Amino acid sequence: MKKIIFTALVAAFATTSFAQDIVKQMKGQSYSDAVSTLNAALSGLSAEQKAKGYNQLVEIGYPEADKAYQAITLASVQKNKVEASAYTSIVNALNDAVKCDEFDNQPNDKGKVAPKFRKKNADRLANFRSVLINAANEENENYDRKLALANAYINSSESPLFAEILKAGDPYIGYAQFFAATAYYHQENWNKAAEYAEKALKCEDVKENAEQFLVSALTKSLKTKSDTLTYIAKLKDINADKYMAQMASLYNQIGEKSLSEKILNDAIAKDPNNKMAYAIKGENAMNEKNWDEAIKNFKKTVEIDPDFTAVWFNLGVCASSKGFDLNEQLSENGRITAENDAKVKDALKEAVVYYEKVRALDPNREKVSNWPYQLRMLYNALGETDKANEISKMLGE
Hints:
Shape: elongated
Largest sheet: none
Structural class: mainly alpha
Number of strands: 0
Order of helices and strands: HHHHHHHHHHHHHHHHHHHH
Helix content: over 70%
């Protein structure tokens, strides 16, 4: 037992001794070796010693960072290309200074806060921040690097280290947040992409693009009904009118049909010519196979916008589906009365009118690719084989 205690005391003494000598240990080392030395000792260091360690990293890395800053500034004036690796030392210096300041402003062994490194680091590193914005903006191949550049800027902006310098505000923080959102998005980190895109909405210059990334990232992160409800709330906060159709569709998808209907009815009450509200009401009814209700709402949509090709196609789908459903419902043992057959054909003929409208609006199938197949099927069902063959010829079949 005594031997074990003695060993423990020796270990504790060694750790304390090493902690006291952390700066001495790092002096003369390369930056990467100094990082390894500090990381190996961190768990045994006090806040004061950690501050000294991170400041020593700044001391070691600063000459290279300053040299890089000067080269980047000159290259900008001369419009020369700068290698991406040139920014690494600047990113490291800023990140190390931020960590130094974090520990430098914690109470020391006597319970007092007596920062030693803030002013020097803030004064010599402040100008470095500006080059990170352009670099993050231009980096669109390596998203890890883009994120490192943006995050170094964001972290330095949020750190008390530069609070005095940025007391009037940081005019570029929104850009940095947007660049971070872009990088996270391409890394498929949807939650982080949404977090930073939402922050970037405060910057008017990137607001529109940030909103697109936010909406897309939130969409990709949906997994549960709760996620969807949270997403809908976000859309309401961003722009309830703009995202009305999307919110209504989402409510319908998760079974909140009454909420979907309320959004649509409120939109129509506010604007009787809201074509998207009628279109979504039509889609909801179509999904329920309520063909007549769907047709009624889709007709209202194309009254408002006669060139709404996708809705004309949906009208064709609903009318033809109604006809085929009627044929099944009204047939007995494969036979159907003349009167009922006429009802079926009326529905199919109505569908033909709608598909022919699609054909007129979209002859090259740029918006709706499969209208020829639907139209040919109907002509065959109606016994109009010449017209069906004409479509086959058009398709090269």
